[in-house]
Amino acid sequence: MSEDTTVAVADRVDEVEAPLRRVFREYGLPRVHWFVVAVAMNLVARLSSLLPPLVLGTAIDAVFNGSSDYSLPLVPKAWLPAEPKAQFWFSVALIVGAFVVTAACTWAQGIASDVFAHRSLHAVRVDTFRKMQELDMAFFDEQQTGEAMSILNQDATNLERFLDQALKNGFRLVIMVLAIGALLISMNWQLALVTLVGVPLMALFTIWFSRKVAPRYDAVRSSVGDLNTQLENSIGGMQLVKTSNTEEFETERVERASWNFYTTNMDVLKLAFLYRPGMRLLAGLSFVATFVVGGLWLFSGPPLFFSGDLTVGEFVVFIFLTQRFIDPLAQISNIIDWFENARASGKRIFGLMDTPVRIEDAPDAIELDPVDGAVEYDDVTFGYDEEPIIEDVSFDAAAGDTVAFVGPTGAGKSTAVKLLMRLYDVDEGAIRVDGHDVRDVTVGSLRESIGYVSQETYLFDGTVAENIRYGEFDATREEIIEAAKAAEAHEFIEELADGYDTQVGERGARLSGGQRQRISIARTVLQDPDILILDEATSAVDTETEVLIQRSLDRLAADRTTFVIAHRLSTVTDADTILVLEEGRVVERGTHQELLEEDGLYANLWAVQAGEIDDLPDEFVDRARGDV
Ligand SMILES: Nc1ncnc2c1ncn2[C@@H]1O[C@H](COP(=O)(O)OP(=O)(O)OP(=O)(O)O)[C@@H](O)[C@H]1O
Questions:
Q1: Could you read off the pLDDT of 207-244 as tens digits, one per residue?
Q2: What is the distance between the alpha carbons of residues 124 and 121, in angstroms, rounded to a whole number?
Q3: Phi, psi for residue 504 in degrees, rounded to 5
Q4: Residues with CB under 6 A from ligand 1
Q5: Cα of 491 to ligand 1 centre, how many Å?
Q6: pLDDT tier at 276 (50, 70, 90 boundaries)?
Q7: Which atom of ligand 1 is nearest to the CA of 385?
Q8: What is the mean pLDDT of residues 125-132?
Q9: Which of 414, 424, 563 to mutate to test the pocket of ligand 1 (most atoms within 8 A of CB)?
Q10: How large is the ipTM?
Q11: Looking at 267-281, 321-335, 477-491, which range is the least confident one?
């Protein structure tokens, strides 16, 4: 494979810059109206929540103590009542009104910020999945399924929580700190300084914490991926686990991954345990300092270097507002927590999104339609990594021909046909269909013209009919039945409990290997491809089923270019050309008869299958040992 091989997400993560800004820019901006509503509602809710203590302070001084005028900031005096009793009721009305406005706006901002966060993340999740599907097979060879799932699940959820909570609490924090700070300063700037002295300390403490915690969050995210991978592996291989009696071994492996998750988490929590109470302590100290200085001021005039007056009402407002001020400040710790966690998750999501797609349509790619099915391999060389797996393979298959690949295990037979489908791109040489290099046609039209029946049949959880129709979603029930008949599958399907509507279970677990195989052949019949690839399609079935499958495959292959990969040579004796591969090279080619006459590797393989083991040359037996 060429130099820019796809790398796992983990390797890309460190190259992602400012992931949260990117989430906002790419996914938040299109729904920014919800964001604006949320911020505006938050602003009104928070400001109106400041009104009750302010009114209370004014009422204490003006209505009860009579020590000052009844006045409120920003409200013209002429609008306020002059008589104490009216002032009292006016205060009550203002306080009730403020509570109602706060409640209504908090409700509205909650909805707006939830919609903003969840819609943005819905788009992130779908885009991540779409991108994941565009990535070439090399990505999935390297990536663990559990890791990919954890990106789509947990990492997206982390971002969601951050967008939602940060919006609700972050803005609340900013608004409260700015508004209360301004109010306190306007009431008594000297006492306000006492209250605010903790703020720079808290800011420094927060900077220290976020620098320390960021790498630890990266470790947590990656350990979540490892844990998921382990779980996916252990649960996916449940049958092997049970038959190998390795439940304890698997539990220990999960335990190790879970313990690693625990320890990385604890590394974060150890810091958080220090940081959160530390912030509360600093906030508490601000409160105590305000209370002590304000209290002394009321008892015996301005203490130390302070000067001027402080009324009881002002003192009450200070105490109330300081309390309000401190709470959101102490909340910074949570926001930082969400922020760091979301940043680590954002890096993983964009790490995946930034993975280059190497197998995609060329800018001037053409549609391959209609297809005759002439296929040409022209000096093809390919390797999954540095080492070539296919070397200088050349052959021509005329439209309608059947070409068989045979050879020892690991010779590169499956790899050769995967290149035709462009699951990987050749490193050197070219593969042409009807004279077009497969890299010059759209991937969609290429794959649409090729039907692939592989040795590993995969069925989706759903009904038999849904599985046959997969990829040809417009097919009618009649067409599905016709396809099943051609695949020799109709009779056993009819005998299933619900016929074509029988649920096959996850990966088709409720069906036998031969039944799964025939359903996947029916799927290919329905697809009606111009080129057919049968990759050991009759493996893992009994002889009787093999005959059925072989009959259906022969019918399917009759009038289209077909590539057959087979270990059982009896299935390819009629092929127009048999290519014998060994270590990635074509070592022999010809018809069955020609190859037997050549008396080389093919003839020896044939002899093995015919049971003539004693007549084999020693050289062949030695080579077979090497392969095994
Ligand atoms: N995705 C992959 N990544 C890296 N190496 C791979 C990958 N798939 C196959 N290989 C390697 O490429 C070589 C050829 O594999 P391939 O599956 O093409 O052989 P094959 O001839 O079809 O074998 P078999 O008959 O056993 O199915 C093997 O050595 C295998 O280990």
A1: 888 888 888 888 887 888 788 888 888 887 787 788 77
A2: 5
A3: -90, -10
A4: 141, 384, 389, 409-415
A5: 35
A6: confident
A7: 4
A8: 89
A9: 414
A10: 0.95
A11: 321-335
Per-residue pLDDT for 3 more than 50?
no
Q: Whose CA is nearest to atom 28 of ligand 1?
A: 410
Whole-Å CA distances, 154 to 77, 401, 496: 56, 50, 39
Burial call 137-162: b when 16+ CB within 10 Å, e when fewer: ebbeeebbebbbebbbebbbebbbbb
Instruction: Confirm if 368 and 530 have CB atoms less than 8 A apart.
Output: no
CATH 1.20.1560.10 maps onto the chain at: 10-353
Residues of the chain with CATH 3.40.50.300: 373-449+560-628
Contacts of 295 (CB under 8 A, 6+ apart): 315
Are the C-beta atoms of residues 352 and 9 closer than 8 Å to each other?
A: yes
Which pLDDT score is estimated for 260? 92
**pLDDT over threshold 60, residue 5:** no
Cα 189 from Cα 21, distance rounded (Å): 36
pLDDT band at 620 (very low <50, low <70, confident <90, very high): low
For residue 268, the CA-to-ligand 1 centroid distance in Å is 42
Lowest mean pLDDT among 231-240, 370-379, 554-563, 596-605: 231-240
Q: Supply the residue whose CA is at minimum distance from atom 1 of ligand 1.
A: 141
Cis peptide before 302 (omega within 30 of 0): no
The H or E element containing residue 404 is: strand 402-406
Tens digits of per-residue pLDDT, 509-557? Answer: 778 888 888 888 899 888 888 899 988 766 556 666 677 777 777 777 7
Q: 348: closest CA among 32, 22, 25, 5?
A: 22
**Nearby residues of 228 by Cβ (< 8 Å), 6 or more positions away:** 146, 147, 149, 150, 154
The CATH code of the domain at 10-353 is 1.20.1560.10
CA 147 to ligand 1 centroid distance, Å: 24
Half-sphere exposure of 229 (CA within 13 A, CB side): 16
Tell me the residue length of the chain.
Answer: 628
Tens-place pLDDT, residues 241-261? 887 788 888 899 899 999 999
Instruction: Say whether domain 373-449+560-628 belongs to CATH 1.20.1090.10.
Output: no
b/e burial code for range 473-510 (CB count within 10 A of at least 16 → b): eebeeebbbbbbebbbbbebbeebeeebebebeeebee
Pocket test for ligand 1, best of 141, 389, 627 (most atoms within 8 A of CB): 389
Whole-number pLDDT of residue 628? 43
Strand order in the sheet with 450-453: 450-453, 531-535, 561-565, 402-406, 577-582, 585-590
Alpha carbon of 390 to ligand 1 centroid (Å): 10
Tens-place pLDDT, residues 58-99: 777 777 776 677 777 666 777 777 777 787 888 888 889 889
Question: Do the beta carbons of residue 574 and residue 413 sit within 8 Å?
Answer: no
Q: What is the pLDDT, as a whole number, of residue 619?
A: 66
Using DSSP, state whether 363 is helix, strand or coil.
coil
| DSSP collapsed to 3 states, 32-101 | HHHHHHHHHHHHHHHHHHHHHHHHHHHHHHHHHCCCCCCCCCCCCHHHCCCCHHHHHHHHHHHHHHHHHH
What is the CA(584)–ligand 1 centre distance, in A?
A: 10
Burial 399-423 (b: 16+ CB within 10 A, else e): ebbbbbbbbbeebbbbbbbbbbbbb
Tokens found for residue 162: 């951050």
Q: Which residues pair with 377 in a beta bridge?
A: 395, 431
Q: How far is the CA of 453 from the centre of ligand 1 (A)?
A: 17
3-state secondary structure of 307: coil
